[in-house]
Hints:
This protein is of the alpha+beta class. The chain is 52% helix and 14% strand. It contains eight helices and five strands; from the N terminus they run H-H-H-H-H-E-E-H-E-E-E-H-H.
Amino acid sequence: MSLGKRLKKYFLTGLVVLGPLGLTVLVVQWIVSAMDSAILGLLPTALHPTSLVGQHIPGLGVVGTLMLVMMVGMLASNIFGRTIVTYSEWVFSHTPGIKGVYNLFKQMTDTLFSKEKSGFRKVVLIEYPRRGIWTVAFLSGPTRGELQRLMQHPMLNVFVPTTPNPTSGFFLLVPAEDVVELKMTVDEALKMVVSVGMVVPPDRSVVLSKEDGV
């Protein structure tokens, strides 16, 4: 192998190794800097680290943000705090120009962190929007009542999320025989949808087979 090809190979190998690490460092640095600026902006100048100890303390915003989240969580755990939170949510959700953004993020956090995600019982695979094209969806339960009575075959209620915002999507009635159940969890499927397919969970069937010694 010529020297030029070796150097090119070494460069590409180093780029593959350092690329993700460098991007991770830059993202973390940006988050820390943004948090520092946000928290320090709320403090009077006399309480800034540069005024108290004579130098900037990186990461102070992260600590302050964590403490703020904990305090809000503690406040929202009692009746008085819940009243304040409910009123604040009402104001944000009814203020023109703000309610759209607030409601979007509210729905996203409720979907990702709510304990009621068990409403999505399983992750399934269906052919949508036409035969030959497949998409990941969530099974919410069997079709009942009038809807099932009008159908000739057993139907299932399926929610097809949109990407990258899984709080919106399409509610479909799909024949049970056309639904393929997956072993991935709801959390794993949500991460895959939000990441536009870049975060793919491991094949649980292969993992279970290796654990069983198959």
